[in-house]
Amino acid sequence: MDKIVILNPSLWTNYMIDYLYRTQVIAGTDEIRRSQNADTLPASNNASNALKTKGVLRAKIQPFNVTWGLPKCRETYGDGDSIVSVSTNKRGYTTRVMPSEWKVDQLDWDNKINLSTKGLSDDIKYTGLYKNLQDSHNLKYAYDLISKKKGANTPGVDDFTLDGYSKETIKDLSLSLKDHSFKFKPIRRVYISKKDGTLRPLGIPGPRDKVVQKAAAIELERIFEKIFQNSSHGFRPKKGTHTALKQISGWAGTKWFIEGDISKYFDTINHQLLIDVLKRYINDKEFIDFIWKAIKVNYVDLLNKKTEYGETGTPQGGTLSPILSNIYLHALDVFMNKKVEDSKLSGPTSVDNPEYKRIHSKISNLRQVFLPSYRYNVSSDLNLEERKKQILELEKERSKLKSKIPVTGYRIYYVRYADNFLIAINGPHKMAIELKDEIKIFLQKELKLELNVDKTKVTSALKDRAEFLGAQIRTFSSRTFDQKRRKDSYTKDNIKIRARTPVNKILILAPLERITKKLSEQGICKIINFSKRKVIPTRKVAWVNLENHVIIQKYNEIWRGILNYYSFAYNRSQLNFIQYLIQHSAACTLMNKLKISSRAKIFKKFGYYISIPYSHKEGSISLGLHKSLKRINKFSINSKLPYDIFNYSIRTKSLLDQVCAICQTKENVEMYHRNKLGKGKTDNTLKGITVNLSRRQIPLCKPCHDKVHKGIYDGPGIY
Hints:
This protein is an alpha+beta fold.
């Protein structure tokens, strides 16, 4: 009896009922067994007990417990693995109803994939991944994901692009995977400059290979997302830079940071070690061989006409590399998680200071007389004034003491994003140095990787700032031993007091100087002396020829992106300086475009918010300026810095299921990917730039597509 596993995460929605009905995979009355460890449905060829009406599949089966929905209270089962609901009818049967809108991951029911909701062990391995990879629906879904990316139409070593991709192309690709005739083409090697002046190698596979890699990455993601540690945040669904920073915000009491970076990580991944990790969880030789082909592909440097053989590393730029890099570094996450758990067993990190506690009790007793709930008569105003003086003296004495005294316990915290990681230590400096050396040895011995000595450093959390994921991180402390006081603090009884600011709290800050330098590199401003805030807003030359409302739209996207990314910033109010630069840079750009002599005249004409009317519709657009930027401590999931907006381009979304844009047929529809016109084919006028920006993907049937490419199409415009 075969077992089929139905996964709850969504890929497709409309295939479940039709497929079950067509292949007669219906559960019989005596074949249902439900395990708490693996949610499986046994398959049977007996469809006599099934009935399909109005898009709902019904089957008579014996009653059993269902663990659908979220776990609650002490019940640890559930969390989305069930896809059916249960009800009992008069005949004693249980009716299982599968709503057509519920989504299914698995379409090929012949694949036997063992899933465990309680993790993996050596005797539980996954199979059937290569059969899933061959499925045309999976490949089509992978194409839909790839085609929406900005660099989807970037060619590899040949001139092949996504232009002309069709359902027939997907079918041919599926057949080549089934008969093992599929081969990866060499990867085009390009180099981009880094901040330190060195070059970072990138591998750009062809669009066809990207589609297959993406389909394989989806299969690996289904398996390893249940295995990865919570400390890993890079290249993972529902995780990102903000989730990593949110985890860091809870590291109270941190004394030292270890800012870790792995040297040339993507280029030095050991292939054999990577395959050994995959074999530990996957029992599918065909899929393992496919991964071997993907990572062993050669690199071609077209500029220098060199061929490099892929002995180590995964191509940084491919769609399969992110998930493989996380799988490879999972061992480091497990190693550090053991360190974190051991630190929790070391005992408390501090105890109450008895001297501080004694003075604090005195102050509390003296304050009793000022409470509205005080039941005894106050003798005189003179005694009240004396009490106030005593309280002030004791508060001064208490402010010189620490409320806690450190003891032998320690804490270690860890978070990783791709090949960068941050470790926090609530303990002595010696422990941070020893842990850094221990990680270096572990990477060399277990993973054959090297720690970047120049970028990996131990930073004081109290005196300095660690830099991680575009933010600066430090522990709050006063410059002196006296703790700062909050002026407007009130007790529960609404009595104003001089409360102390809590120490040892993690502060995550927006790096103003780094943001300003980034804007300066893009022509938004010119830095003379940042420490004295001598920064001059300038025009954005590349945007001068855009329409007026588009210019404001671009500046809004930059400002909104910065504001959204740094929504967690403790110093969010200081972003007012960045707002000033963006506002006045927009004024400078319009000033240059409209031939106006000063920024003041721009503000006089269009107002403080620079309100520009649309050229193609009614209404206007203004700069999204804020009068005040209060601290909101907000973290999101998919937030990222908006600097790619400077490379302004527009791509529209188009799918293979659309009709031909010329003859409206649905047969043999391909995608016509129009490339950006070269500099010699358009001028630098507003009209020429607009023509370039409007180029996009267009669905065309094969005959119409051929006519367009041959230059013989003379029908209505499709551009």
